[in-house]
TrEMBL record:
High-level lineage: Eukaryota, Viridiplantae, Streptophyta, Embryophyta, Bryophyta
Secreted is among the record's keywords: yes
Active site: H77
Family: Belongs to the peroxidase family. Classical plant (class III) peroxidase subfamily.
Task of the protein: Removal of H(2)O(2), oxidation of toxic reductants, biosynthesis and degradation of lignin, suberization, auxin catabolism, response to environmental stresses such as wounding, pathogen attack and oxidative stress. These functions might be dependent on each isozyme/isoform in each plant tissue.
Highest taxon above the source species: Eukaryota
A Pfam family assignment: peroxidase
Signal peptide: 1-34
Domain Plant heme peroxidase family profile intervals: 36-334
Localization, UniProt: Secreted
Binding site for heme b: H202
Site (Transition state stabilizer): R73
Protein name: Peroxidase
Organism: Physcomitrium patens
Length: 334
């Protein structure tokens, strides 16, 4: 078969064009991997990933509303050390995982996160990390409850390690003071105004009685509205000395609109109806009170600053590139 010089040249040109295209694609992938978190990380590998996660959260919310509050809380508890989905891992080989920590009391709905992961796996097997599922799911959770739409960077990888000992000492407790909390979040690049905005997530969900019982027993905190204290005592009777803590009795963070991502949290603080110790303290501390007042007056401002702070939180010390792994099931390593 004879091939003319013109046909040969055309074939070589096509081959050269194909090689250039492949090189550009490879360069793009390597660039994404080397830059850590980026917007639309899955644009080529799983273009519908973010929509799948968003839509699945909305479907789960219709079925089980409190999944949205749980997702937001999981992001807080995952990112205290690294946004790497370590909070979702089960204990392994006799080593207690983070979920065994006292700091994780009351964490629930973890099984539904695997439902979100499965929805992504069905479309793009082995591509989207549990850490990204969790971060994007938390953002979707805030939005479905009436909060702001938060566009997050992606590209997180999953940790292979989860240690109870790390979670025992790393996460602020309901009894933490303002200085500790401000210092904790400042290490993530989150300033005072943004920290107060993040704590506004307490406008949804509920708190177990053991989280605030020191504010009503044996005497009522003088910074608490006495009528509100009476409501808490009715819901949370004093336990006998030495009795095991009761973790299933709770009080809603905001009785007026417990499932609405609104600024009633700050309105309640202004009325001395903060539930947790840290809630009450930010309404009294001179470093934080100004922002409590501002957010109580301006829901849009709170939403704006919450979105900024949540974004910074979600980008705290992630595993990226060749670090970590992409789990198939969020509770277990590969």
């Amino acid at each position: 078969m004879h091939v003319s010089s013109g046909e040969g040249t055309e074939t070589m040109d096509r081959l050269a064009a194909l090689l250039i295209a492949l090189f550009c694609l490879l360069a793009t992938v390597l660039k994404v991997e080397s830059e850590g978190l980026v917007y639309d990380y899955y644009a080529n590998s799983c273009p519908n990933a973010e929509k799948i996660i968003h839509d699945t959260v909305y479907k789960l919310y219709e079925k089980k509303g409190n999944i949205a509050t749980s997702l937001i809380r999981y992001v807080f508890h995952d990112c205290f050390d690294s946004c790497d989905a370590s909070v979702l891992l089960e204990s392994s080989k006799g080593v207690p995982a983070e979920k065994e920590s006292h700091s994780q009391v009351g964490m629930r709905n973890g099984k539904w996160i695997n439902n979100i992961k499965k929805a992504v796996e069905d479309s793009c097997p082995g591509v989207v990390s549990c850490a990204d599922v969790l971060a994007l799911g938390g953002a979707a959770g805030a939005q479905v409850l009436g909060g702001p739409a938060i566009k997050l960077k992606t590209g997180r990888k999953d940790s292979r390690v989860s240690l109870k000992s790390v979670a025992d000492t790393g996460i602020p407790t309901p009894q933490s003071n303002v200085s500790f909390v401000l210092d904790y979040f400042s290490k993530m690049g989150i300033n005072t105004e943004e920290t107060v905005a993040l704590l506004g997530a307490h406008t949804i969900g509920r708190a177990h009685c053991v989280s605030f019982e020191e504010r009503i027993y044996p005497t009522v905190d003088p910074k608490m509205d006495p009528v509100f204290a009476s409501m808490l005592k009715y819901r949370c009777p004093q336990q006998k000395t030495g009795a095991e803590p009761v973790h299933f009795t709770y009080f809603r963070n905001d009785e007026q609109s417990p499932m609405a991502f609104d600024n009633h949290y700050y309105v309640n603080l202004m009325a001395n109806q903060g539930l947790l110790h840290i809630d009450s303290e930010i309404a009294w501390d001179s470093r934080t009170k100004l922002f409590v007042v501002e957010y109580a007056k301006d829901n849009a401002l709170w939403h704006k600053n919450f979105a900024t702070a949540f974004t910074k939180l979600s980008e705290h010390n992630p595993l990226t590139g060749t670090q970590g792994e992409v789990r198939k099931h969020c509770s277990y390593t590969l």
